[in-house]
Amino acid sequence: MDQAQNLRNIIKAGSAVPALSRVITITSGKGGVGKSNLAINLAILLSRMGKKTVVLDADFGLANIEVMLGVRPQYNLSDLMFRGKSLSEIIAEGPENIGFISGGSGIREMTNLTKEQLINLSARLSELDRQADVVIIDTGAGISEHVIEFVMSSAEVFLVATPEPTSITDAYALLKTLDHQPEFAREHCHIKLIANKVGNEKNGRELFEKLSVVADKFLNISLEYLGAIPSDQSVSKAIMKQQPLVTAFPNSHAAKAIDNIARMITGQETIGELKRRGLAGIFSETLRRTLSR
What distance in Å separates the CA atoms of residue 89 and residue 40, rounded to the nearest whole number? Predict the structure, then answer.
């Protein structure tokens, strides 16, 4: 059986899985903007609201999530791929009943996956549809092929940026890269900006306007504004303690802002295109593009 037929069989099998999970892909144009910190804290807040939530650390080989949580999982994605472990075995238990899947730390084999291995990984991860209400994908930063594939395949993308000029420029570069992909279906991809490390809500709106105007004018990509998270020393203190912000400093300004975002997105979960597609649906899109190349 040739590779193309194998891919078709994976797509067919994936389409039989009920699309149960709501998938939120969190990304950024550059590192250091607070993307992983947001993913962890959103997951905990959604768990408190009764959602079974799993964080997938898709920054292969770096494992930021486990470092920030101060948890060393027994297994990671490389064990799923190369050492015969099941999906259930590699889901580590995080704080407040969240699950997380580590991308592995310093593992070269996870940073150099072939196209065929990525396809296999996608098929295996689609099993999460049976196990989670919400899956948060924490991508790597930047415009690598892996990042762009996750973003293109997702119905719901949170783009994190800060007021720093380099962050704004790199966020625009990510959007421009998306715009240049022939397969990018902008009408099915809701990209929502989260302004992080801002002085106040007004600064967050200003950051959104800067990006939104140029994206709409030059790229024909419409951004939505999801909210702002203020600069807060509690964030760095929580990271140093290797504890989630909403647990270590629940009354901090940043924690309250993330809580507002969590409540907002919970209220959106059945609106239009935000109805659950599941990981199977997302990965089927990736595989279909692979077949067409």
Answer: 20
